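Kindly inspect what follows.
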Amino acid sequence: MPSTSTTQVQVSVIIACRNARRTIQRCLDSLAAQTTTSNFEVIVSDSSTDGTDGIIRSEYPWVRLLHFETRKFPGDARNAGIREARGQILAFIDSDCVAAPDWLDQMTVAQRGSNTTVGGVVDNGARGHLLDWAGYFCEFSQWMPPGRPCWMDDIPTCNLSLHRELFDEFGPFLEGVYCSDTALHWKLARAGRKARFVPAIRVAHHGLERLGPFAGHERFHGESFARLRVKDRKFGLWKRFLYFCGAPVLPALLWLRIARRVLRNRRYIHEFALATPLLLLGLTAWSLGEASGYLRGGR
């Protein structure tokens, strides 16, 4: 159970949260059930308008809740949580994810002597609909189980940790934008600090349940990624134009990349085949977003 005392905290678990009424209880219940002997705290940085904060206040008094009346992007919310954190290890999970019972134990072991970010498997926790699978393959195929230990360019912040000293050196997360975790990993990679993928560190993700929000989210994510890339890599007008022209072939290229991962992992092949029409819709939405992002640039 998370600590509510003022004794030394080893790990601070930080959750960026917005309108998570549907999923926050599963997430917090999984943290309450951790088998770890480490002293840890849970900080939820919330800007919900759907009553999520009320659920946390009434049912999870051990959570340190930071509630904001104005919307916080994920990077802004995580930075706010980090400012309140007392742990030497910062661990991140999202409000739509469920941690395995040994999640914190595995994370803590992997962080011993680490000088970079460490994360692990993101599985699909919502398997009842093909839209769940399409969203999962769109976003998390790179970190599907079973996986092998390796170095990676990027690991999503729904299953990530790093030492406080490392964050103080390379942070904070970019604010007012999406994909701020990607920007942090690019910065670390340039310093020779690639992320370490440890398959024993596991969470399960619960995706969007309706087609409209799914497509809209993928488009917004693609546009945010392109605008971040333009700004981070200092793309000039011609390079932006070339990437814009390449956007129409992106759905096919991304689908082939995901198919290769599925076949290599020998996992979820049947689900991938059935979800392909919806997956291609999501990848097309992402690609349209990327094209828009290259047109708009890094503004």
Q: What stands out?
A: The first strand starts at residue 11 and ends at 17. The mean pLDDT is 94. Residues 211-296 form one domain. Residues 81 and 220 are 24 Å apart (CA to CA).
